[in-house]
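Lecture 7 notes: from sequence to structure.

We start with a single chain of 364 residues. Read the sequence below before looking at the structure.
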Amino acid sequence: MSKRTSYLDLVLNPFNMLRTKRILKVNPTVTPARAEPEHINVFVYDYDQENIHEERLKKVQDCFMYKHSPRVTWINVDGLRRKDIEEICNHYNIHSLVQEDILSIGQRPKMDDIDDVIFCLLNMLYFNERDSTVEAEQISIILGKKFVLSFQEDASRDVFNPLRDKLQFRNNKIRQSSTDYLFYTLIDLIVDNYFLVMEKLSDRIELLEEDIVRNANKRSLAKINQLRKEMIVLKRNITPVRDMINGILRSESPLLEEKTEKYFKDVYDHIVQANDLAENYRDMMMNLHDLYISNVNLKMNEVMKVMAIVTCLLAPATVIGGMFGMNFDIIPYAHHKWGFYLTCGMMILIPMIMLYIFRKRGWF
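Now the structure, written as tokens:
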């Protein structure tokens, strides 16, 4: 979509009701139909302090051999197909309820400690520069003994590239730590990316504020409405993550080492800060709406003031013209040779005196 197309959409459909429907249409009681991709990507990273084995697989069955690997194994599946998810989860003894959550759509971020694994479901957020919208991609992460499974919806993008780069270095802390540290790193990267999305939204809010101060119009109101919808998406995905991290901290699972707890506390601090920033942005949007209303009322007052002044200035001419236009036989200066000029002079002089008085009193 080009900028011109986006502008036309903003003019023809300024309040974007379709976007509202997508945001608010969430019904967990209805089983959604997920369109399954034709192809999936399976990446395996099997490593310890000394060596790392990286492999891209064509089918999920090829990763079954890593279940009993003595090293830490990260299996990342891009693209969700029910058959593949069920096969890999059954092989790694993942509960059927977790499988259903992985295949679900529009789930609230949550954490479950079930059957000797820890399951986390949350959303990766991206900012669409073209449409100025916040997009969410559901990701499921499973921590088991000596393995971490991650399932993504979109194979074309994620925020894990810094992790992949760090795994190539032998002396990196990830290579020297156990599986729970890898689990922490995946969640931390997702949470840190929230701040990048919020920075983009902050830039849009600043530009909108300048636009409202300079020239508030109906398009400004449409932009306010659009950004408020994106704030709903942001809050809906960020706020539950705090409870998810808190659940990990309260968990007594043997999969989580005590020395890793401080790292999850750091993620908890980050998500609390992100939630506070989201609240601040929502308050700013409400302030921008009030600012827009104030500017519109101010413009209306200016228009009414000008119209009132013009009406007052025309009143003397109307009165004078009405008096000399009456059908009486005797009207002073009606037949005087200077009568017309005196009348016109009074029509000009009196409004000028009125303008001077208005100006002196500061009425405009």
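The longest strand covers residues 117-128. Keep this in mind for problem set 3.
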